[in-house]
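User: Fold this; tokens only.

Assistant: Input:
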Amino acid sequence: MVAATHRDLDADVESGRFRRDLYFRINVHALRVPALRDRRSDIPELANHFLSLTCQRFGVRRKRMDRDALDALMNFGWERNNVRELRNIVERMVLATDADTITVADVPGEIRSEAAPTASPAGTTLRDRRAEAERQIVVAALEATGWNITRTAHDLGLADHASLLKVMRRLGIKRR
């Protein structure tokens, strides 16, 4: 069984809002995924994945998304921490245009109007910005080595591949 929640079940168990026995039955392996707003570098890959799936699902010819549309998605606040929200927005854009390329004009108005001018909104803490910068560095290094963990760890000056795996886990980077 796979279950997902945005709630802190540990705290809910302690406060009595969630049954302790049920918690221990379902909590075999917890996987913590950072909020979408904390891993903006994933947005282009996710958006393009959802774009392909949506085109295939609705039998629409393959579309692509231009850089400005992707930038608008990356600059949006994503306060609801919901990848499903991104999927639904991409689906709306696919269905709303007959063109082969989705442009910023196809991005829903609420996304364009609420999008911050930069990838780091004013409310983002230094810790969040540092984590996102570190994440981008690690992902770029992994891509440069074809996701070879040992070689990437060496290139980044880490002690061994286990150190890189810990960093990847902390930053929510999944192994390919």
